[in-house]
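Aim 2 progress update. The chain analyzed this quarter is reproduced below.
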Amino acid sequence: MNYLSTRNKILVTATVIMSCIYVIWRTFFTIPFGHGPLAVTAGLALLIVELIGMFELAVHFYNMTRLEYPELPVVDKTLYPDVDVFIATYNEPTSLLFKTINGCLNMDYPDRSKVHIHLCDDSNRPEMRELAAHLGINYLTRTEHKHAKAGNLNNAMKHTSSP
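Predicted structure tokens:
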């Protein structure tokens, strides 16, 4: 399958034509013949490096014009596991957490009923409980505040059951 657009075909064609013109000009008009063997050797070495670069460009264009996208397998929605999403918070502002939760609510997952979002609040703020209730997600908190965010996440895993 060839997915190269008309615009890209024009750009590739123009680049190839300009590169050919450049190589011709570079070969016949810029090699310093008559300025000694060192100058000619350096000029030819630079020309060879430029030709290798253009060969690399040609290989790149060839590969980019032959992109193939494999078909995605069809997977039964019942085979997707339940997923827990933990949002660990301590003193983050409500506006930031609103955006984070909103992003989690809009994640792409085949069976949305299997996505369980948990707001893990380590500071026991009432506004966090209200935010979780307002957005329809689970609210988890803990009484002992040991081990910072890792402790918060470990506590959340004790209260959830997704694999």
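The longest strand covers residues 83-89. The helical segments are 6-29, 37-64, 94-105, 126-135, 148-158. These observations will guide the mutagenesis experiments scheduled for the next reporting period.
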